[in-house]
Prior knowledge:
By secondary structure, this protein is an alpha+beta fold. It has helices at residues 13-25, 31-50, 70-79, 108-119, and strands at 54-64, 84-92, 97-107, 124-132. Strands 2-3-1-4 form a four-stranded antiparallel beta sheet, covered by helices on one side.
Amino acid sequence: MDKIIRFTISLPEALLDGLDKKVTEQGYASRSEFIRDLIREKMIKDEWEGGYDEVIGVLTIIYTHHQNDLVQKITEVQHDANVHIMCNTHVHINHENCLETVMLKGMADDIVSFSQKISALKGVKFAKLVKAAVPIS
């Protein structure tokens, strides 16, 4: 486990009040936990924007499986992808709709491109890419 270092920051009172409100609303144990999450989130965002390191993402899609050849097109995009598909889950929501999650690893631009290709297919009703990376402690 990493050594914990304490440091002090100065904030305007209104900003501190807003911070404390968020800490309470979101159920954090302390300001430190909240701020650690903010820092991790910013670092992950920077990794995605920098494009130099491998990142991970989860693409969630909902689509109608009755759309002509849609399942085949989704499969083709996945097979032709320039990313590593680590896992794919498929759930039947109802008679018309399916939900899939695709866990991806690769370069940020390649993951975004893959997600856009899937999202653009006719019959895809919803698509959302969650951008992640392995955070520093």
